[in-house]
Automatic annotation (TrEMBL):
This is Siroheme synthase. In the C-terminal section; belongs to the precorrin methyltransferase family. Belongs to the precorrin methyltransferase family. The active site is at residues 257, 279. Its EC number is 2.1.1.107, 1.3.1.76, 4.99.1.4. It comes from Luteimonas salinisoli. Then it catalyzes the NAD-dependent ring dehydrogenation of precorrin-2 to yield sirohydrochlorin. Finally, it catalyzes the ferrochelation of sirohydrochlorin to yield siroheme. The keyword Transferase applies. GO terms for molecular function: NAD binding; precorrin-2 dehydrogenase activity; sirohydrochlorin ferrochelatase activity; uroporphyrin-III C-methyltransferase activity. Residues 227-436 form the Tetrapyrrole methylase domain. It comes from the Bacteria.
Length: 505
C-alpha cells in the first residue's frame, strides 16, 4: 500500500489499571516502556534473561514481575498488550507473531511494520494529555511538535484540568445545553481563572469557579484582565524564559520598552497589539504615568497585558513603581524575571562576575545622572576584590573614574565595557580604570552599554567567546560600527550622552 493510501491510525487512550502488560527485553528501552506503563497503573511483567539495574531493583521491590529467560508465548497468557523492546530482531518478530495470533495489541519498538499499535509522543499536564503520532513514519516530527507544545503549555493546564474535572457534575448541571456549556468554557478560559492557578492562588481560583457555578452566577460579565510584568532579557531571544515566551504567545497587548529587541517582539502572538512606550528624555514623569494608565486601562478592558521590559523588570527597570500602581488599582499581576544586563553581558564577554581568586561580591549600580551618582557610597564602591556592574553609565565615565580613584581604587583596575551585550553587534572594550573614559571615547561606545569594573574584567582577554575579541588600548583606532555609518562620532573629550538609555530609565 502506498504511503498516502494508508488510513490513519485510530487513536485511543487505554485504561490499563490493574491489567497486565508484557514488556519483552531487559535494557534501557524496556525500562522506559515499563516506567510509563507503571505510571498508568498497569501490572507490568518484564521478560528477559537479565534485567538492567533499575528493572532488577523494581523486580525485587515487587513493582514489576520478572519472567526470566528467552521469550515464550505463554508469557502473553494474561496480557492485554505487549511491547517488544529487545535488540534481537528475531525475538521481536516472535513476540509480534505470538501476540497477533492471540489478538493482543503489540508494539515493536522502532518497527512500525511489525507493530499493531504505536506509542505516541506525549505532552502531559496532569490528567490532560496530548498524544502525537506521525503514523510511525516520522517519529522525529512528532517529537519536535511535542517539544514545541511543551514550551507553550505551562503547569497551570494541569491544575485547570484537575479543578474542572472535580466540578464536572456541577458544570454540566449549570449549563446542561452543550452550546451554552461551550460558550461558558470559552469565557472562563479567557478570564483570570488560569492566571490565578499559574500564580498558585488555588483557593481564589476555586472561589472564582464557585461563583461562576452558582445558579445566579455571572453569565456574561466582562472578564477581568491582568498584567504580566515580564523581563525580556538583554536582547538575544534565546535568553527569554519559557514563561516569558508563553505569555508573549497569549498576550492581547504588549507594552514594551525601546530596549526590547525586534527578535523578542517577533515571538509575540501575531495579532497582539504592540505598543512602544519608550520614554522621551526630560519627560520621565508623565511618560511613567502614561504607562501606568495604559496598563490599567487595557487590563480593565479585559485584556491580557504583557508589560515587557529589557533585562529584568526589578533591576533598574521601575518595575516596582508599576506594580505599586497596579496594586493600588486592584489589578491582578504576575512578574516574570529576566536575565539582567549585568549577568548577560558578563556571560557574553567571558567575565565571571565573581571568582574565588578575584571577587567575592558584586554590586549592581546605576550611574545615570549626576544626582544619582551623589547618592552612591563611593568608599564602599572603591573597595577591592569586588565587581561593579554599572548600568546607564556611558555618559558618566569621567566622574566614575575620578571618584573611584579619589576613594583609593587602583587606577590599574581592569574594566570591560560591553555594548549591545548578547546581540549580534556586541562590542567589548577592555582596559584599566585610568584609561576608561578615553578608551570609551576612542571606540565611540554607546548605549546600551554596561561597565564591569574589577579584577575579573581582565579575564575577558582570555575567556571571551562571543563575537569579536575585546578592543583594548592596543586595538586599532575606531573599529566602531558607528564611524562612517552616517552616525555622529563624538569629538575627542566629549562624552557621548547616553540618550537612548535616559529614555529607558
Ligand atoms: N532592567 C534592565 C536595565 C534597564 S537600565 C536590566 O535588568 O538589564 C538600562 C541599562 O541597562 C543600559 O543603560 C545598559 O547599561 C544596560 N543594558 C541593558 N541591555 C543591555 C545590553 N544588551 N548590553 C549592554 N547593556 C545593557
Amino acid at each position: 500500500m502506498s504511503l498516502d493510501a494508508a488510513p490513519p491510525l485510530y487513536p485511543l487512550f487505554a485504561d490499563l489499571r490493574g491489567r497486565t502488560a508484557l514488556v519483552v527485553g531487559g535494557g534501557g528501552v524496556a525500562r522506559r516502556k515499563a516506567a510509563s506503563l507503571l505510571q498508568s497503573g498497569a501490572r507490568v511483567v518484564v521478560g528477559a534473561p537479565e534485567l538492567e539495574p533499575t528493572l532488577s531493583a523494581w523486580a525485587l521491590e515487587g513493582r514489576i514481575v520478572h519472567r526470566r529467560g528467552r521469550f515464550r508465548p505463554s508469557w502473553l497468557d494474561d496480557a492485554w498488550l505487549a511491547i517488544a523492546a529487545t535488540d534481537e530482531v528475531a525475538v521481536n518478530r516472535e513476540v509480534a507473531a505470538a501476540a497477533e495470533a492471540r489478538r493482543i495489541w503489540v508494539n515493536v519498538v522502532d518497527d512500525a511494520a511489525l507493530s499493531r499499535f504505536q506509542v505516541p509522543a506525549r505532552v502531559e499536564r496532569g490528567p490532560l494529555q496530548i498524544a502525537i503520532s506521525s503514523g510511525g513514519g516520522a517519529p522525529m516530527l512528532a517529537r519536535l511538535l511535542r517539544e514545541r507544545l511543551e514550551t507553550q503549555l505551562d503547569d497551570s493546564w494541569s491544575a485547570l484540568a484537575t479543578l474542572l474535572a472535580r466540578q464536572r457534575g456541577r458544570i454540566r448541571a449549570r449549563w446542561p445545553d452543550p452550546g451554552a456549556r461551550r460558550r461558558a468554557f470559552a469565557r472562563l478560559l479567557a478570564g483570570p481563572l488560569q492566571g490565578l492557578l499559574r500564580r498558585r492562588r488555588d483557593r481564589e481560583a476555586e472561589l472564582l469557579l464557585d461563583a461562576e457555578l452558582a445558579p445566579d452566577g455571572p453569565t456574561s460579565a466582562a472578564p477581568a484582565g491582568s498584567v504580566a510584568l515580564v523581563g525580556a532579557g538583554p536582547g538575544d531571544p534565546g535568553l527569554l524564559t519559557l514563561r516569558a515566551l508563553r505569555l508573549l504567545n497569549e498576550a492581547d497587548v504588549i507594552l514594551h520598552d525601546r530596549l526590547v529587541g525586534d527578535g523578542v517582539l517577533a515571538l509575540a502572538r501575531r495579532d497582539a497589539e504592540l505598543v512602544s512606550v519608550g520614554k522621551q528624555a526630560g519627560d520621565h514623569r508623565t511618560a511613567q504615568e502614561r504607562i501606568h494608565a495604559l496598563m490599567i486601562d487595557h487590563a480593565r478592558a479585559g485584556r491580557r497585558v504583557v508589560r515587557l521590559k529589557g533585562g529584568d523588570p526589578f533591576v533598574f527597570g521601575r518595575g516596582g513603581e508599576e506594580l505599586e500602581a497596579l496594586h493600588a488599582h486592584g489589578i491582578g499581576y504576575e512578574v516574570v524575571p529576566g536575565i539582567t544586563a549585568a549577568v548577560a553581558c558578563a556571560a557574553y564577554a567571558g567575565v565571571p562576575l565573581t571568582h574565588r581568586d578575584h571577587a567575592q561580591s558584586v554590586r549592581l549600580v546605576t550611574a545615570h545622572c549626576s544626582a544619582s551618582l551623589d547618592t552612591l557610597d563611593w568608599p564602599a564602591l572603591a573597595q577591592e576584590r569586588q565587581t561593579l556592574a554599572v548600568y546607564m553609565g556611558v555618559a558618566m565615565l569621567d566622574t566614575l573614574r575620578t571618584r573611584l580613584v579619589g576613594e583609593g581604587r587602583d587606577p590599574a583596575t581592569p574594566f570591560a565595557l560591553v555594548e549591545n551585550g548578547s546581540r549580534p553587534e556586541q562590542r567589548v572594550v577592555t582596559g584599566t580604570l585610568h584609561e576608561l573614559p578615553a578608551l570609551a571615547r576612542r571606540h565611540a561606545v554607546r548605549s546600551p552599554a554596561l561597565l564591569i569594573l574589577g579584577e575579573v574584567a581582565a579575564l575577558a582577554e582570555t575567556l571571551h567567546w562571543f563575537g569579536d575579541a575585546p578592543l583594548s588600548a592596543a586595538s586599532a583606532v575606531l573599529r566602531s560600527p558607528h564611524a562612517g555609518a552616517g552616525g555622529p562620532v563624538p569629538a575627542p573629550g566629549t562624552p557621548e550622552p547616553d540618550r537612548a538609555l535616559e529614555r529607558a530609565a
